[in-house]
Structures are given as structure tokens and as C-alpha cells.
User: What shape does this take?
Amino acid sequence: MARKRKRSIFFWMILLPVLALVVGIVGCNVWIVASTKGRIFDSPSKINGQSVGLVLGTSKKVAPDIPNQHFVNRLVAAAELFHAGKVQQLLVSGYRDSKYYDETKDMIAKLIELDVPEANIMADDQGLRTLDSVMRASTVYDLDEMVIISDDFHVGRALFIADHLGLNAVALRSETVARDDSRGVRWREYFARVKAVIDLYLIHPNRGVKRGMAKRA
Assistant: This one.
């Protein structure tokens, strides 16, 4: 009897919560990937023209002397999209906490290096999270449609957020960074997708919904 009781306690207190957590993580990831994969493209030629490309930010370097390949690839993809005539402007959205760390400033500099005119670049330095970047593109910059540019594993979550806000968005995935060099961020993305679902449907269930419904009407 005591052994049976211990098994019951183990199931209800440990095993069941762990199983529920795993199912939740897998479910959120499948939901985001399946609902967005048809609008993620790997070449500007496959994208219909939009007015603005939203470039999601990241740090320029991973160490003092080591460039961040995710940063480079995103900006190269954005420049290719612009030069292909698929967008007229690029909105770079990242985080700035001081004059010593400013993702948007670095992104602008890289785009200019890639021959994108500064006059065609807008900057949002309050894009602390992907959620902030997409929301502010809508509420602050008044965008109804956009092409989101980021890594292959990242753009799905951004599109998922855009869908919830009622935006007309597609995505351009940048060149894939070798998995040996991106394993850490890929693992974090699994959990970031869960956080996105919690943010949009549990913590702030009405965030952006009215605006999105108005646009679709």
C-alpha cells in the first residue's frame, strides 16, 4: 500500500507536471512553425513587393574580436531585399542601452556599407524583444504590412506575433548560420516560442487584437 501511494505521489507531483511541460513546449513550437512556414522565403525573388522590411536586431559581435554571423547574415539579406526592389525602406529594430551598445546604430552602419542609402533606413532602438519590435512597427511606425528579416529559426515567431496583431506580413530568412555556431540560440528559440504564446494568449490576451480586427474588417 505504501509503495502504491509513493507511485501515485510520484505520478501526480513529478511525472505528470514534467509531461505537461514537454507537451506544452512541443505544442507551442509545432503551432508556430506550422502556422507560418508557408510565408517564409529564402530569396527576395519569391517575395511580392512591400513598402517596408523589418530587420530584427542582434549584437554585432559575440566576443570583442569575433563578429556575430547572425548579425551579418540578417543585414546582408535585408540589403539584398532592398536592392531587389522588394521594399522601399528598411526599419532596423534593436536594443540600445548606452552609447557603447546600440544595435540599431551598428545595423545602420552595416546597411550603408552594403550600399543601402541612409535616407531609406529607419531605426527603432526600443526593440528589446521580438514582441516589442513587431508591436512597435505597428503602433509607433504605423505599419500594416511588412517583410520580416531574420534567421531561419527566428522569423516564424515574429510572423506568429504579426498574425496576432493583424498585420499582413511575410518573412525573408537570412542565410543559415552553421549549427555548431548557432546551437545555443536555436535551443533558446524553443523556449522563446513558448514565451510568445504565453505573452500573447495568457498575459496580454487583448494586446493588439482590436487593432488587428479593425485592419481585417
Notes: The chain has one domain: 2-216. DSSP finds seven helices and ten strands in the chain. The beta strands are 40-41, 52-56, 61-63, 66-67, 89-93, 96-98, 101-102, 121-124, 145-150, 168-173.
